[in-house]
Amino acid sequence: MTxxxxxxxxxxxxxxxxxxxxxxxxxxxxxxPANGKVLTEVGDATPEDGRQAxxxxxxxxxxxxxxxxxxxxxxxxxxxxxxxxxxxxFARVITLEVGKTxxxxxxxxxxxxxxxxxxxxxxxxxxxxxAAAPSGNGRILVTKEPVGPVLAITPWNFPLAMATRxxxxxxxxxxxxxxxxxxxxPLTTLLLGQVFVDAGLPPGVLSILPTSDAPALVxxxxxSPQLRKLTFTGSTGVGKLLIRxxxxxxxxxxxxxxxxxxxxxxxxxxxxxxxxxxxxxxMRNGGEACTAANRFHVAREVAEEFTDRLTSxxxxxxxxxxLDKQTDLGPLVTEKQRTQVDALVRDAIERGARVRTGGxxxxxxxxxxxxxxxxxxxxxxxxxxxxxxxPVAAVCxxxxxxxxxxxxxxxxxxxxxxxxxxxxxxxxxxxxALKTGMIGVNRGxxxxxxxxxxxxxxxxxxxEGSVEGIEEYLDxxxxxx
Length: 481
Prior knowledge:
alpha/beta, Aldehyde Dehydrogenase, Chain A, domain 1, Aldehyde Dehydrogenase, Chain A, domain 2, 2 domains, 7-stranded mixed β-sheet, 15 helices, 21% strand
């Protein structure tokens, strides 16, 4: 079967709303991970392209900031409607460059579009306050103003949703934005650029710069005094590097970084619901999600039943090209990613873990890895310490609630956590005790455009989505009257 891109997917740079070739004239390949074939060639942005994009953003910035909030919101609303109308095209592109199933890709399209709708409504709700000074000698006026030009660096696993979550908030706040999409998945973001042109976004306000040399492009932009904000979603290691680079200019930053989510199943849990929740928390996007459940800590009393049932469901998942209707699980995004996942599994097995299903790289083309369940995973295994980013569930047993909480918090990360219980008092205690930015109680999927997304500890800082998301792109100004 032939798997091709829809007609009309842009492959050049969006420079202030216009499609242009890279200043170097060079391109790089975008690969279908299911078969290793080249989908297309994409323009390869250079530091010079970055400087041009930033110049356009600065030139357009004052007018965009002064654009009535209602007008900014209406552009975002039109963009939402256009993404929805082109959902199948977006989903096909996402499947081809990421590898996820078409069903997962369609879900991402609708999830990603919601950020455009949400922030179209938040644009008109930016407010300040006026208060009497306690001394009685005047008034305190507080206003919110756009921070200025933004650099948004987005990851490969949700190329539409992670772009709209940043672009929507930035544009609603009045900030011109430059997007650097992941090298592996630039096509979805380039297709989104066409949406904003069609929605009537003014020239200069948005640029999209795919590149095979992210360090050179990003460093050029961060070093410029014209850039005022950096927002990044990706690994903790890269996030720390960007924070160090941005510190020289005290750049406003927000960081959505790695996770190592625990999934707790208590002895009073509804096992049917817990298994369904585990599949959702583990296998969304094939496990390639920062919110994916990594470590399954299960009460000893129900561990055998839960693990047997989870294994049965995972073993039944069919791997294949994401555009094939019978496929439940697509490939991992790159061979490097698959090698990293397999290394974690090999380490756990060497330490005594038992393979319940999967656990080895299959033969044949593509970067496939089977849905895998391991139990009897020993403390100290890398599988429990590092973000897996693949379809692997590591099951451990606990005896007390205190042990479960201690194990869940035994990580430098703090993005998401999940737990199942029927006891409302326990739900309250455990939710308070878990050191994460987001918690799913009897739920395996927690992402929502109306909810603040972000973590604590080494999972980053700042929030995206919700009413908090737009604050990341606003400065607070105090005026004494």
